[in-house]
Design brief:
Shape: globular
Structural class: mainly beta
Distance between the termini: 14 Å
Strand order of the largest sheet: 3-2-1-4-5
Helix content: under 10%
Largest sheet: 5 strands, antiparallel
Radius of gyration: 10 Å
Order of helices and strands: EEEHEE
Number of strands: 5
CATH class: Mainly Beta
Number of helices: 1
Number of domains: 1
């Protein structure tokens, strides 16, 4: 699933995404930490992975494998 970064707090390391269907989805600091990234910018395209319960578990850049 892909979306666009709507908000990102570099101190708390969490934020929210605007998904391609127009819905908003929050992601926790743990999902950002799992990516190995240092920073996200508002407007940046990302790919997310979710658990079977629907929780966001990983946020990565679309260009990364």
């Amino acid at each position: 699933m892909q979306g666009t970064v709507a908000t990102f707090d570099p101190t708390l390391r969490n934020g929210s995404l605007l998904l391609d269907d127009g819905s908003r989805l929050d992601f926790p600091a743990e999902a950002f930490a799992a990516s190995g990234l240092r920073l996200l910018r508002v407007g940046q395209r990302v790919r997310i992975e979710r658990s079977v319960t629907g929780d966001v578990t990983l946020v990565t850049l679309v260009t990364l494998p």
